[in-house]
Every structure is written in structure tokens, then in C-alpha cells.
């Protein structure tokens, strides 16, 4: 379906573009996907701090591979290979400065592995066919000329929630990865058609949140 901005043919004429929050829905969807991906990286990671024995052990276990050692070197760890082996074996503890670098290496490697395999992220959004909730915030009208403000887009009732958006997430993640804003806008058009007859008012939005 081609992207339809019929709800905002005069977008910007009366100041809707004065707020930097107000963007096309496809742009907001891309940002929401990036936020959800960041949450998956962080929330699925090791919770214990690197300064705790448990947190350090878990990170070193994750990093105990050729890719892990490479990540540690890239993070700035310069100790000799023997010292690294002692760390992995639990015979020696990194210095305070190296603890921070171990933590950096862990998060860098975890992030890279997730970005290299976005299939898990797609599965997360598809949620075994149940889909993901999408929360849609209308444009911020605070800078719109008063006579042109839309009452139906003001107040809490204007924030719309679709509890189970399905079938679009594989394509959406691919579009996010490729930076294909046109495809994201087409997908957004498909999403908001699930709203009532006023769906065109949400072709531009101030924020989109994903329940994932």
C-alpha cells in the first residue's frame, strides 16, 4: 500500500512542523524499533555489576573465546595472554581500570552479536504470532496556530494503543536495518489503518512506543 498522508496534506502550514517531535510515522516507527532493540540488548544482558565476583565471572565466561579476546583488545585491554588466561581461570582479578574495559568489551560483543543476527529480535516482536503492542502519540500541537489545532488530537484520549500488531515485524526490522524510511512509512500506513476512520490524523506523530 502506498504511503498516505491524506490526514496532513497541509502539515506545517499552521506550525505543526515547529515542534521537532513531530515526524512522519515511519520515522517514529524506526526510532521505536531502535529503542526496543536497545532494551533487548540491555535487559537481556548480565545484571550483576562487573565489580562483583558474580558479574565479573559471567562476563569473562562470555568473553572466553577468540571473538571475546578480540573484543577485549579492541576495548583497550593490553595485558599479556598469560594474564588473560589467569582471568578466565579465576586465578587473577583485573585491575579496577581493566574491570571497566572488561565491561565495555562484554557489552560491545553482546551488541555486535545481536546486530549480526536480528532474527532473535524479529522473534521477540512476533511473540509467537501474538504480535507486539504499539502506542501512538499524536503530534504535539502546542506550537500549532490555535485556530488550526485539532481537538480530537488533544488529551489522553488521543494517545492510541493497538494491543497486538502482527505480521509486519520481519519487514519492519529489515527496513530499520537497511535505513529504508520509505518502506517504514509503508508499514506505518498498514499499522494505522487498524485505527478508526481518523487514522489519517496519525500519519504524523510525536512518539511511537513498542510493548517489547
Q: Count the strands? A: 5
Number of helices: 8
Main beta sheet: 3 strands, antiparallel
Low-confidence stretches: 1-6
Q: Output the radius of gyration.
A: 23 Å
* Backbone structural class: mainly alpha
Oligomer: single chain
Task: Give the SSE string.
Answer: EHHHHHHEEHHEE
Quote the distance from N terminus to C terminus.
Answer: 26 Å
Overall 3D shape? elongated
Strand order of the largest sheet: 3-2-5
Give the % helix.
40-55%
Question: Percent of residues in beta strands?
Answer: 5-15%
Overall pLDDT: 89
Per-chain topology:
Elements lengths: L22 E2 H19 L9 H11 L2 H10 L5 H9 L6 H21 L2 H8 L5 E6 L22 E6 L3 H10 L2 H12 L11 E2 L1 E4 L2
Antiparallel strand pairs: 1-4, 2-3, 2-5
Structural write-up:
The structure is a single chain. With 212 residues, the protein is mainly alpha-helical. Helices cover 47% and strands 9% of the residues. It has eight helices and five strands; from the N terminus they run E-H-H-H-H-H-H-E-E-H-H-E-E. It has a three-stranded antiparallel beta sheet with strand order 3-2-5. It has a two-stranded antiparallel sheet with strand order 1-4. Helix 2 packs across helix 5 and helix 3 crosses helix 5. The radius of gyration is 23 Å and the shape is elongated.
Amino acid at each position: 500500500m502506498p504511503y498516505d498522508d491524506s490526514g496532513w496534506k497541509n502539515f506545517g502550514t499552521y506550525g505543526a512542523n515547529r515542534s521537532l517531535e513531530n515526524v512522519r510515522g515511519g520515522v517514529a516507527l524506526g526510532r521505536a524499533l531502535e529503542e526496543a532493540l536497545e532494551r533487548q540488548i540491555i535487559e537481556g544482558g548480565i545484571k550483576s555489576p562487573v565489580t562483583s565476583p558474580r558479574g565479573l565471572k559471567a562476563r569473562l565466561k562470555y568473553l572466553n573465546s577468540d571473538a571475546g579476546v578480540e573484543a577485549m583488545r579492541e576495548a583497550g585491554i593490553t595485558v599479556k595472554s598469560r594474564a588473560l588466561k589467569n582471568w578466565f581461570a579465576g586465578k587473577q582479578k583485573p585491575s579496577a581500570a581493566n574491570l571497566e574495559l572488561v565491561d565495555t568489551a562484554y557489552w560491545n560483543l553482546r551488541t555486535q552479536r545481536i546486530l549480526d543476527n536480528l532474527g532473535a529480535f524479529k522473534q521477540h516482536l512476533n511473540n509467537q504470532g501474538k504480535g507486539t503492542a504499539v502506542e501512538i502519540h499524536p503530534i504535539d500541537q502546542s506550537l500549532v496556530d490555535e485556530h488550526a489545532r485539532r481537538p480530537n488530537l488533544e488529551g489522553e484520549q488521543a494517545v492510541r494503543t493497538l494491543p497486538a500488531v502482527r505480521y509486519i515485524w520481519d519487514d519492519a526490522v529489515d527496513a530499520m536495518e537497511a535505513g529504508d524510511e520509505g518502506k517504514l512509512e509503508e508499514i506505518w500506513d498498514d499499522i494505522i489503518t487498524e485505527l478508526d476512520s481518523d487514522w489519517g490524523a496519525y500519519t504524523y506523530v510525536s512518539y511511537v512506543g513498542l510493548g517489547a
